[in-house]
Amino acid sequence: MNSNGDTIVILPAFNEQESLGGLLREIHQHAPDYQVLVVNDGSTDRTADVAAAEGAAVLDLPCNLGVGGAVQAGFRYAFEEGFAHAIRCDGDGQHPPSEIPRLVEGMRENDVDLIIGSRFLNEEGYTSTAFRQCAITALSVLLSAICRRRVTDPTSGFQLLNRVLLRFFSRSYPTDYPEPEALALMRRQGYDYAEVPTRFRERIAGQSSISGWGTAYYAVKVFLALLVDRARPVDPQLARAKLIGEI
Amino acid sequence: MTQAEIDELVHRLLTGWDEALGLRVFVLLAGGLILGLAVTALWKRRCSYVMGFLWLLVGAGTVLLACYPQQFLRFALSTPYMTRIRVIIGAISLVVLFTTLESIRRTHLQERYALLWIATALVLLVAAVFPGAVAFFRAVTGTEYATAVVAVAFAFLVLVAFHFSISMSATQTKQTKIAQRVALLENRLRKLEAAGGSDPKRETVAAEGVKSAG
């Protein structure tokens, strides 16, 4: 399938009816040329209706799959509809649409498949709890070593992907808390990433999926996944050199 | 427990049972109820002959226990306790085997999930019929017969549990793929309907279906 050269913004959303409308208008204001896809991850509220009313395309998942499954559904859509690039940001408003141009510029300047918007690259006034900060630092050190490429914000879901990576992620993407594991997986198959500094903001509404015991579970799950992934053989069917010929 | 302590326990059971009249009446009623239910079920053909016969046996045993406690218990306790353990283990293995095969027959259980259960039941059965089968395990670990059998059965149950975890993960992966595909197809269908000027009646039905599913 050939690419149409367009960019799509993918928003996974679970019960985000309060914040979604404002966020969609904001995206339209800052990136009017981009199409928007809302992946409704089995919400029990009117998330899908709000998205459709604002003119976004909607993928209605019949049951809740978690962030990984929802985002992957968005990647599949983006690939099958022929988009050249996809921007992934959270439906809770943490990732300000005004920062999207920075990602796009990053993709133009670097010859990579993925641009990550990092909170920590320039230390632009982002605060987090001490425990979470500590876990993220440990994770970024470990992940930078595994990937042999510096990463400061491995849990960031504010990303810009190119088409070959969309192809790869629609075939293979981790389930819950996918971002760090996805970085390790793509590096192993020959894909590359770079970071650009971006500003994040407090979520408009809703609750983080990672809080309290969730942080500990997150840490253990991600570290286990990173270690086990190392022991997995590289799949030549999904290697960058192979997929680049298929898109 | 020493042999003397076991003998003491047997004696207490034998003499105590005679005097517990209330308990005996209760057991008698329970046995009568089981017999009655089994006969009705057999009469109305609500269960298979094998199941009916087994329940009749259970009911008859309970009634016997209530009416002739001395003779019944004396016979049961006169056997060496190695024999009793073997009978109990054999009974458990037969129950597992029967339940598994019956579940396959009623298509409640797929064969591939039943294999490990059948293996567990067969291992228990072999251990009950040939006590020498676990001799090697007993020699290595220095345990009693019953402990050895339980340990071997436990190993098989762990295998069963692990098999379930694996197939659950596989099922979840497939479920994710199916859910994504459904959402993509639904999106495409809505686009086609919007482009093709669809029948408004059908559209409301589709919208309601989505709401009730959410």
Topology readout:
The complex is a heterodimer of chains A (247) and B (214).
Chain A: E1 7-13, H1 17-30, E2 35-40, H2 47-53, E3 57-60, H3 66-80, E4 85-88, H4 100-109, E5 114-118, H5 130-147, E6 159-162, H6 163-171, H7 179-188, E7 193-197, H8 213-230, H9 240-243
Helix pairs in contact in A: 1-2, 3-6, 5-7, 5-8, 7-8
Chain B: H1 3-19, H2 21-43, H3 49-67, H4 69-78, H5 81-105, H6 111-129, H7 135-141, H8 145-196, H9 200-213
Helix pairs in contact in B: 1-4, 2-3, 3-4, 5-6, 6-8
Structure description:
- The complex is a heterodimer of chains A (247) and B (214).
- Chain A is α/β, with parallel strands linked by helices and 247 residues long.
- Chain A contains nine helices and seven strands, in the order βαβαβαβαβαβααβαα.
- In chain A, helix 1 (17-30) packs parallel to helix 2, helix 3 (66-80) packs across helix 6 and helix 5 (130-147) runs parallel beside helix 8.
- The model of chain A has no long low-confidence stretch (mean pLDDT 88).
- Chain B is extended.
- Chain B has two domains: 1-78; 81-214, no CATH class.
- Chain B has 214 residues and is mostly helical.
- Chain B contains nine helices and no strands.
- In chain B, 87% of the residues lie in helices and 0% in strands.
- At the A-B interface, strand 3 and helix 3 of A face helix 8 of B.
List descriptors.
heterodimer; A: 247 residues; alpha/beta; Spore Coat Polysaccharide Biosynthesis Protein SpsA, Chain A; 9 helices; 7 strands; 43% helix; B: 214 residues; mainly alpha; 87% helix; extended
How does the overall form of chain A come out from the CA principal axes? globular
Measured by DSSP, the beta-strand proportion of chain B falls in under 5%
The span between the termini of chain B is 61 Å
Count of helical stretches of chain B: 9
Tell me the β content of chain A: 5-15%
Mean pLDDT level of chain B: 83
* Helix/strand order of chain B: HHHHHHHHH
Query: CATH superfamily membership of chain A, which one?
Result: Spore Coat Polysaccharide Biosynthesis Protein SpsA, Chain A
The biggest sheet of chain B, with number of strands, parallel, antiparallel or mixed sense and barrel status, is:
none
